[in-house]
Amino acid sequence: VRIDTAAALAMPGVKALITGKDLQAAGWGLIPAVAVFNDKNGVPMKSRAIPPLALDHVRYVGEALALVIADSVENATAASEAVHVEIENLPATSCPMDALRPSAPLVHHDLDSNLCMHWADGDFAQSESIFSQADHVIEVELEDPPVAACALEPRSAIAWWDAQQEKYTLIAPTQGVMIVRKLLAENVLKVPLEKLRVLTPNV
Questions:
Q1: How many CB atoms neighbour CB 24 within 10 A?
Q2: Distance, CA of 43 to CA of 41 (rounded, Å)
Q3: Model pLDDT, residue 131
Q4: Averaged over 162-181, what is the pLDDT?
Q5: How many Å apart are CA 169 and CA 175, to the nearest integer?
């Protein structure tokens, strides 16, 4: 509903406080999906680009709402705790099967359902023919447990702007510097590729 940054901005050592609306007003774009596959009907899966900072809706636990820039970690931490966020609780579900019901609250309100894609592979006619001739058929429903990617590296980055060369440099633990460079340069920063260098040491 509202992010009040006034108190945080007035705190010692704070240089700037940025929200998703600020980035949007500055012309920054969204981070698009890297891999888009077709569903069983050959239609591309539903995907939505991710804002660098949340805009009108917070869609998952831990989604960043604001960025504090300060002259020390201590001052940045103190200021971040002074940012006042007013959030309206919306209907939600944490069960994937419940999220597929027609009445389920939508993660993205411009879509008609939470189903990203219905994927299928193989020769179904041949499979059905073989199973119809089997003496015994056993059916099993498998559910994957919740999985979270837990990197050894912290979720962090170092970046700087070289005013003389007019270039950005980003150091971050990524799985592919070229795709990260392309996504950020073309879609978020909206600058030519040669204006951004992405470095990833050992990951």
A1: 15
A2: 6
A3: 94
A4: 94
A5: 17
SS3 call for 162: strand
Q: What is the pLDDT of residues 47-57, one digit of tens each?
A: 999 999 999 99
Q: Is the pLDDT of residue 58 over 90?
A: yes
Task: Indicate the SS3 state at residue 55.
Answer: coil
Return the half-sphere exposure (C-beta side, CA atoms, 13 A cut-off) of residue 166: 4
73, 44 Cβ separation under 8 angstroms: no
Task: Name the pTM for this structure.
Answer: 0.77
Q: Give the CB-side neighbour count of residue 99, counting CA atoms within 13 A.
A: 11
Query: What DSSP line would sit under 74-95, residue for residue?
Result: HHHHHHHHH-EEE---------
User: What is the rounded CA–CA span in Å between residue 173 and residue 154?
Assistant: 8
> Confidence band (pLDDT; 50, 70, 90) for 169?
very high
